[in-house]
Amino acid sequence: MPQKNSTTLSIVIPVFNEVNFLEELFDQIKKFFNNEYTEIIFVDDGSEDGTSNLLAELKKKNNYKFSFKIIRLDKNSGKGKAIQIGIKNSNGVYVLLQDADLELDCKDAKEMFEMISTKKDIKCIFGSRYLSGKLKKNNYLFNNLVAKINSLIFNVFFSQSLSDVHCGLKIFHRSVIEKIQLSINDFGIEIDLASQIVRNNFFIYEYGVSYFFRSKAQGKKITWIDGLKSFYYLFKVRFLDNSASTNLSIAYSSVYMAFVGSYFGMGLGNILFIIIFFILGSILGIHFKILSSTIIFLFIFFGSLFGKGNGTTLAVIIFFLLGLFAARKSKRLFSKSKLSNYF
Q1: Is 128 in the same domain as 66?
Q2: Interval 194-213: pLDDT, tens
Q3: Which residue, of 195, 219, 240, is where some domain finishes?
């Protein structure tokens, strides 16, 4: 934790070839954060367009009250890496992530800081481009579609209700920073951040922000390839970055849910149902460990003993829902006991 007299707010800004936007961004920062309790950390991610020189010139002006830090990376390593390095070099009680391209407004960042710093129960706020009636300019259909699909998948995987996982404007209390270990170096950092925050049982609040879309001609870096990679990162953070017990639960529940799927359809339809239920089982395995998952399986098996044909299918569905209810109750009952790792 920071010392008593340390900075209240650290603003981490990853920068890669943003020479056309830095002066206006600097003016916005001075307008909303010009005080001695704030540090601004620019992480220059191997820029080659004069960004480095301009940052040095802005720092020399000395017409500001905040602490001004510049971290220069020799080669472009990705937004995620720049954010990781910026966070490691921050001292603030709160850490705010701000993009350098002016798509997001510093005024919204100021409002988010005021909110989190005055409400002690809030430890994390994500900006959302899809909430509120604030001014927006966005005509890039593919990026918009992928962002919404990714948020939906994230919500299913992590039992959340977020509208915009990918928004670059976020703020955290130091207690959140101390719990997470970021590892993704490119634009997948947004998924990495959100997943680790949820895994560590912090609640993510959302705040509607303005959004001013920047085109490729204006220097936008994210591409359709990053959009496709984001689906892999969602799979990675949910199904690979788990404890051994969670992975075992995923395998276990996938198998018995495939068994449930075998009661639906015929021929190719039956195979499709088995695959679908196998996937559903993998998601169940994330939320229920071995013992609670076994409760669901036993209910399903018991239901399969009733009726014939469609009657058996209906019984399996009913007992599956009853099993879910019983598993949730058991999970809550043992949540604070020594058996919690098994439920």
Answers
A1: yes
A2: 999 998 889 999 999 998 87
A3: 240
